Amino acid sequence: MSYLGLVVLFGLYCVIGLAVLCLLKLVSLRRLSVWEVPLAVLVGWAALGVTLSIVLMVGGDVVDGLILAFVLSVVALVGSTRRHSRSAVRQARQRVGRLEVAGLAVLGVLCLMFVGKGVFWNGSFHIDVWSFWIPKAKSIYFYRGLDTGPGGFTSWVSPDYPPMKPAVDATVFTAARHADPLLLPVHYTLLDVFFLWALLGLFRRRIGNVTAVAACLAIAALPGVINLVGSSLGDESLALAIAMAVTLLAVQAGERDERVVILAGLFLTAATLLKNEGAMLSLATVVAVGATGLVRGIRPLTVLAAGPAAAAVSWKVWLSTHHVPANPAYRLTNLLHPVWLIHHTHVLKNGVVALAHQSASFRWALIVPACFLLGLWLWRESSRVAAFAALVLPLWLLGYTAIYWVSLNTSWNPPAENSQRIYAPVAIAAAALTPLVFASLRPTRTPLTHARIGREPSAELADVDRAAATTQRV
Amino acid sequence: VIPRRAGYGLVYPAGASKVEPGVHFAVPFARSWLLPRRPGVKGPATWVLDWGTPPSALAAKGGRVVELAPGIWAIGPAGR
Fold it and tell me: Mutate which of B32, B37, B41 to disrupt the A interface (most A C-beta within 10 Å)?
């Protein structure tokens, strides 16, 4: 019964995600590819999480949010059938070679091991999961909303954390009709598998089938990823949201597709509502996108920034109206007090050392410095994706360093376990960006067509797409 | 033992975490596990989850005392 609930929940993610993708005319229900389904699941997870957070903030319940999201999705799906157009996320039919099949088989085995890890989880959650992620989810499930009384949402550690992760966990409990914490690792390992599958779909179009499989295998085999999968920590969800956002931004760079920017904005909004650090990561991403011209014009940049900004403001308003005390661990306003900062340089040093240790750690296979240096190196080739990678990674680390610096525990030295967790979104996003930075060096399809047509990449790609469609019909 | 709609307070001796490091993990685990029972509620009608203190020192007259595990008791509100 419990696992059946999870199946229903993932079906709901898929329906909601397809509704969003169809509404944006990014996919067609009639010509749905197997590589587009996982993207729909991830989009559905983010869209449902954002919807649930809003519904909870206005005083509703998880069930209200589920009904609202389902009804809106069905209306959107019914209203948007048949209409779709070319997009950076749409998949063309491609032949699957032997090497790719072999790579997919290995990746499949790895994914099965991930799911097995979730199914046979023995309950040894991280203390943060027992201390506040599970109790917050249970409080939403049992008390039907964001309760501020004893045992309610705000009575646990980190009361100021946004509600998306506990809201999604409460949805898992609602779907299973049982608040069983052991369902969470199964839910998150499945989500991680869909994430790898979605990445594979996005990579295939940019870097070729075999390289895409190799890149996904490399990501899945990172020791840090294997350790994080199924942990049910907020950092696991945050890593998925941030990595999906930057992957979509990098994928659309060749085609300047504003609809894909909207999807990236949805994932940044989800990141903002997952953890406090998510707002910092989203802000740094928007700044890097603006500075490197990864999206063209003010409008798409505004679209990208609007969701996270609205989410952050509405959560701050909710905290203020419900008189929730500030996080006792750090105070961001201390960044405005130079004297205080000077007196706490030892905390800054501890933070820098902790992050540097993670950057050099075998756990993440040096992926962040490698991606940064690659981006820096290829920046000269006028690759916007490379420039974005070279800028966004140090910005994120700078943001984490600032958070460490304003820690109110003056003798605090971040333990390796803490820095490893908070480093995960940066490392996984860097791992997703690296193959796309490589790919940005070469045109999306054949270099010959670039030279022959001599137009903007978007026009060239449109022509190639048309030619491919004609070939398929023939 | 503790009814689902009841509130309870968790009591463990000061300095317990020095003697028993597991308290650091056990307290959040217990608080999470016992939901929807509301933790941190004080009053005559609430239960006490007692870890390490002799229950006679905490139990009100007529209150029900149940040993959950060695050294851990659930103490009910005073009987009527």
Answer: B32
Q: Hey, what amino acid is at A342?
A: I
Q: With beta carbons less than 8 A apart as the criterion, state whether A263 and A43 touch.
A: yes
Rounded to the nearest angstrom, the gap between the alpha carbon of residue A372 and the centroid of all alpha carbons in its chain is 19
* Close Cβ partners of A214 (under 8 Å, ≥ 6 residues apart): A103
Spatial distance between the Cα atoms of A79 and A23, rounded to a whole number of angstroms = 8
The beta-carbon neighbor of A135 closest among B7, B24, B31 is: B31
The b/e string for A323-335 (b: 16+ C-beta within 10 A; e otherwise) is eeeeeeebeeebe
ipTM of the complex: 0.84
A297 sits in the region (left: phi over 0; alpha: psi -120 to 50; else beta) called left
Residue A363's H or E segment, with its range, is none
Answer yes or no: is pLDDT of A465 > 50.
no
| Closest partner CB to A150 (pick from B7, B25, B28) | B7
Q: What is the DSSP string of A198-224?
A: HHHHHHHHHH-HHHHHHHHHHHHT-HH
- B65: β partners: B75
Question: pLDDT of B27-52, one tens digit each?
Answer: 788 888 888 888 877 776 788 888 87
Phi, psi torsion values for B66, nearest 5 degrees: -125, 125
H-run or E-run covering A184 = helix A183-207
Picking from A140, A158, A136, A162, the residue whose alpha carbon sits closest to that of residue A312 is: A162
Residue A123 at interface with chain B, using a CB cutoff of 8 Å: no
The answer for residues whose C-beta is within 8 angstroms of residue A437's C-beta and 6 or more apart is: A250, A371, A374, A375, A378, A383, A385, A386, A389
Q: How far is B68 from chain A (nearest CA, A)?
A: 21
Q: Which pTM was predicted?
A: 0.88
Amino acid at A470: T
Tell me if A182 sits within 8 A of A11, measured CB to CB: no
Instruction: Decide: A421 and A233 in contact? Cβ < 8 Å.
Output: yes
Task: Calculate how close chain A gets to B76, using CA atoms only, in Å.
Answer: 19
Residues A88, A251 contacting (CB under 8 angstroms): yes
- Quote the CA–CA distance of A305 and A398 in Å, as a whole number: 20
CA angle A289-A462-A376, nearest 5°?
A: 30
Beta strands at B65-69 and B47-51: parallel, antiparallel or unpaired:
unpaired
